[in-house]
Amino acid sequence: MTEDGPPEAIEAAEAIEAAEAPEANAPGAAMPEGHGALTAAPDAPNAPDAPDEERGFAATAREVWRDERVEVVAAVLLSLATVLSAWGAYQATRWSGQQANSYAEAAALRASANSQGTVASRQIQIDVATYLAWADAVQADDTRLADFIRARFRAEFKPAFDAWLDGAPPDEAGLPAGTPFEEPEYKLAAQSLADEKVAAADAALVDAQRANQISDNFVLTAVLFASVLFFAGIAARFRPQWIRWAMLSVAVVVFVLGLIVEFYLPQNVGF
After folding, report:
1. In this predicted model, what pLDDT tens digit does every residue of 203-220 receive, in sequence order?
2. Which helix (DSSP H) or strand (DSSP E) does residue 2 occupy?
3. CB atoms closer than 10 angstroms to residue 109
4. Measured between alpha carbons, how far is 258 from 43 in angstroms, rounded to an integer?
5. Residue 10 pLDDT > 90, yes or no?
6. Neighbour-count burial of 93, counting CB atoms closer than 10 A to its CB (0-12 exposed, 13-18 middle, 19+ buried)
7. Residue 130's closest CA among 113, 141, 146?
8. pLDDT band at residue 235 using 50, 70 and 90 as cut-offs
């Protein structure tokens, strides 16, 4: 707008320009050509407050624990009781096998002991028969026959016979008192072996009885953990909190008792 012209025209032009200026500055108004567009940067979203988020998570966890703690404790008890019950059943099976093996060993040892005892009895009969024949020959003053029989004594009988013959003075019949079978030197290897096998059989029988008792005790732990499964599983079925916690308390007590019994017993891993 030039400054030439009448003053009235100049004032009217200035009034028109003043009226158009607010419309140009209004939001959404087009900028005049040649001017750069000034756009306001959009407001950035507010960043989450980390402490507030952590406090919200903790509050949610506390609320979940308050509402679901019976179920959480019951789930833990159920899982542990299942594993320990399976372990108790495995141990009961292992000790039952040990019991069977010990019973079989005891039976085999007793059979062998009986066999050796039979051999020892036969040898005693031979020794008694030859001794009586020697005594009859001595009584008949048949020295040749007595020496013949004495030369055929068994090797295990000779030490006892010599100790008996040299130990006590002879009586009127010319023989010492008693018999060689009373001497401590009279020992039979077959009889000693039979005695050893009888003792081993008795020890195997004791082991079998012990394994049987341990197996029964592990069966008891399986029963205890089955009770834990029942009480922990039924606790969540009740709505009153005191009943739920009462059932859960019984489950915890029985679980601790079963845990003590199971790990107090000797473990038979098998490898």
Report:
1. 999 999 999 999 999 999
2. none
3. 20
4. 65
5. no
6. middle
7. 146
8. confident
> Which amino acid is residue 54, in one-letter code?
E
Q: For residue 270, give both structure tokens.
A: 């098998």
pTM of the predicted model, to two decimals?
A: 0.62
Distances (CA, A) of 100 to 36, 95, 96, 220, 264: 101, 9, 6, 20, 23
Query: Distance (Å, rounded) from C-alpha 135 to C-alpha 170?
Result: 13
Q: Which two tokens stand for residue 63?
A: 């609320």
Alpha-carbon distance of 222 to 86, in angstroms, equals 7
174: buried, middle or exposed (CB in 10 Å: 19+, 13-18, 0-12)?
exposed
The first and second tokens of residue 26, run together, are 């209004």
The residue behind tokens 């299942």 is: 82
Q: What is the DSSP string of 107-169?
A: HHHHHHHHHHHHHHHHHHHHHHHHHHHHHHHHHTT-HHHHHHHHHTS-TTTHHHHHHHHHHS-
83's tokens: 């594993």
Q: What mean pLDDT comes out for the span 144-170? A: 88
- Residue 31 pLDDT > 70, yes or no? no
Q: How distant, in Å, are the alpha carbons of 24, 28, 32 from that of 38?
A: 13, 11, 12
